[in-house]
Specification:
By secondary structure, the protein is mainly alpha-helical. It is built from five helices and three strands; from the N terminus they run αβααββαα. A three-stranded antiparallel sheet has the order 1-3-2.
Length: 110
């Protein structure tokens, strides 16, 4: 969850790092970042150290929304924990990763 990443990293994170963390392409991250900017959740600030990078900062609105997002995330996670066993969760994660890797490979070949 992007808000969680921003919150945990002292409210500062680099765009490039998020792409790696979430395993998404630059265009995908761009759409997410622009959407969050438009909603007033984050600000994008050019890095003073390296002008090729941007720092992402939670706005006051983003900081206020973060606890609500985490509450929903925690609730959904608890619901999933009550439905799946640990073994089923592990298998689900393995299958999801396998599918994601396969789709990435397919996309890279196109």
């Amino acid at each position: 969850m992007l808000l969680e990443q921003l919150s945990q990293l002292n409210l500062k994170v680099f765009w490039h790092d998020l792409e790696k963390e979430f395993g998404v392409t630059n265009p995908t991250m761009t759409v997410s970042i622009k959407s969050m900017q438009k909603k007033g959740l984050i600000d994008k600030v050019k890095s003073e150290k390296d002008g090729r990078y941007y720092r992402l900062l939670l706005t006051e609105t983003g900081k206020k929304l973060y606890p609500k997002c985490m509450a929903v995330y925690t609730e959904v996670e608890a619901m999933c924990d009550s439905i799946l066993t640990n073994e089923e969760k592990d298998q689900f994660i393995k299958l999801t990763n396998k599918l994601t890797d396969g789709l990435k490979d397919y996309q890279n070949k196109q």
